[in-house]
From TrEMBL:
Taxonomic lineage from the root: Eukaryota, Metazoa, Chordata, Craniata, Vertebrata
Pfam families in UniProt: Abhydrolase_11 (PF20408)
UniProt name for this protein: TEX30 protein
Domain (KANL3/Tex30 alpha/beta hydrolase-like) ranges: 27-207
Gene: Tex30
InterPro entries named in the record: AB_hydrolase_fold (IPR029058), KANL3/Tex30_Abhydrolase (IPR046879), NSL3/Tex30 (IPR026555)
Length: 220
């Protein structure tokens, strides 16, 4: 289902992937610095989640300014929260690369405003912890503030997320967290000798099983 979400004097293009059965939870998903909501990894994940009963709303927001991206993301969260078509008890924020930074930023803002009851967790695909070869400047400030569960899915050879550095940051986080390493994958989640579909299947099943665990915890 294609929708246009009002954002200031513009609109954000978005697509709902809707499960057949009654749904309780959703995932909002956005892309990295390049590309848009039709980035193959996002399309694949959205279809997988919807086929397993999780609503997925993915959206496009062009712009390389992280504050702008976070503002757009927050607008989408509000839109879904107030939606009459889909009554959800909670939502997980997810993004790829820069999109996951924007998601983390929104969760921090909402928790500081005391408005994070709707947010159930954060999924970071290829979180860009630092610029290539700039390991001294970590983009970890939002992560350290977050309290809701966080899943990282990163390539062990990601040039923007050195394995040891992410593990160090995770150890300092107060939130419940899990890291799933895709062996030998780079920032684009490519691995020599493995097909894209094979890697996507690994990512999709990891994300879904983590979501399911956290939804079950919440419903107990």
């Amino acid at each position: 289902v294609k929708v246009k979400i009002p954002f200031g004097n513009k609109y954000l293009d978005a697509i709902f992937s809707v499960p057949k059965k009654k749904l309780t939870h959703g995932v909002i998903l956005t892309h990295g610095a390049g590309g848009d909501m039709n980035f193959p990894q996002l399309v694949s994940l959205a279809a997988y989640l919807a086929s397993h009963g999780v609503l997925c709303l993915r959206f496009t927001c062009k712009g390389l300014n992280i504050a702008y991206r976070a503002k757009a993301y927050r607008t989408v969260v509000e839109y879904l929260k107030l939606s009459d078509d889909y009554k959800l008890s909670g939502v997980f924020l997810a993004g790829r690369s820069m999109g996951s930074r924007a998601a983390a930023s929104v969760i921090r803002q909402l928790s500081q405003d005391g408005d994070d009851d709707f947010i159930q967790g954060l999924v970071c695909l290829s979180y860009p912890l630092h610029r290539p070869k700039l390991q001294s400047k970590l983009r970890n400030e939002d992560l350290l503030f977050i309290r809701c569960p966080v899943l990282f899915v990163s390539g062990s050879a990601d040039e923007m997320c050195e394995k040891q550095l992410l593990e160090d940051v995770a150890s300092k986080m107060k939130a419940p967290k899990k890291i799933h390493w895709i062996d030998k994958a780079n920032h684009g989640m490519a691995v020599k000798g493995r097909t894209t579909d094979d890697i996507m299947e690994e990512i999709n099943t990891q994300v879904f099983s983590w979501l399911r665990e956290n939804i079950e915890l919440e419903q107990k």
